[in-house]
Structures are given as structure tokens and as C-alpha cells.
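SEQUENCE WITH STRUCTURE:
===
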Amino acid sequence: MKKTFTKIVKSVSKVRPLLGHVHYTNERIELTDSRVAIIEELKTPLEKSFDILINLEGVPSVAHYPELKRLVPTDNTNMFVIDVPMLEAVTKINKKEFYIKLESDGTIGGQKVGEFERLDGFKYIAFSPKYVLWLLEYAKESGQKEHITIELDDSAVKPAVVHFEQPETLNTFVITPIRLRDDQL
């Protein structure tokens, strides 16, 4: 199991036991802690159908897991190409902060962390440093060590999405932003 999977499942196991599992089907593997979600869709689904939840101890369960695919935004119009090492450095410096805020000029706290490939009405978005570090860890586990493209909405409250294509899977990482108060803008 990927390290990021373990962190996400462990973070929620006691508080929301249903989410403290990895959901396996013949079409995908998925998990969430309600702040981030990972969906790994098989390019070629397995022939035999199954649907099972497995916790960190490997114990299966048959509870109903939420349908995560419906949470993935499909209309995010802003494309931001992240410099993974730079974002990781900035995030680690700020990891004890409540949030880090990505501005429309591609900076966090004045430090350039990437470039907009497409910018259409976007002003800013804020994320928990913890979840950004999870995203970057997952990107590295998926072989993306230098650059990733994050899809952002114009709204600072809608989830952001990163897609990773692997030889056998299409992977999606969804990260929800932190809503900022007027005095935090």
C-alpha cells in the first residue's frame, strides 16, 4: 500500500470509521478522509466483479462506501503547473501554518511555485499545508517528481484536482481548499 494511502486512512480511522478503509472494486481503488480523495481507475477493469473495503490491518468490511467519482470537478478551467520541489520547500517552511495561499501570480507568500498554463478569473485558493504535502508525496509515488498540473476553479471554495496517468491506472487526487475569512485575504 502506498504511504499516502496509509496516512489518509490513518487520519480518519477513529473519527469516521467507514472512511478508515481503502475501497477496492474491479474498476478502481479509492479512499478519502473527506478533505482529500484518491481514485485510481483501472484502464482495463477486472472481469470478475467485486466491491470490498479493507482497513489498515487488512480486515475486510462490506459497508457502503461513498461514491467518490461524483466529487471530482469536471469544469475547473484554470490550469496551474506546479514546480514540485519549490512547492514542497515552501510548504515545509509553512507546515505549521493553518493554510498556504496560492495567488493568481503563481506565488505563495511571495515565492514563485509554478506558472499558470491557463488563467480564467482565478484570484486565489488556500490549502492546508498537511494536505499539500500529501499531494506532493502522492505525486512522487506516481512518478511525478518535477511538475504536476493542478486544475482550479475560479471559486476559492471548490476542490482542486490533479490527474496522474500510470501504465495501468488513471489516478486522480482531489484536495479541498480552506475557506478564508475577509481578514485573512
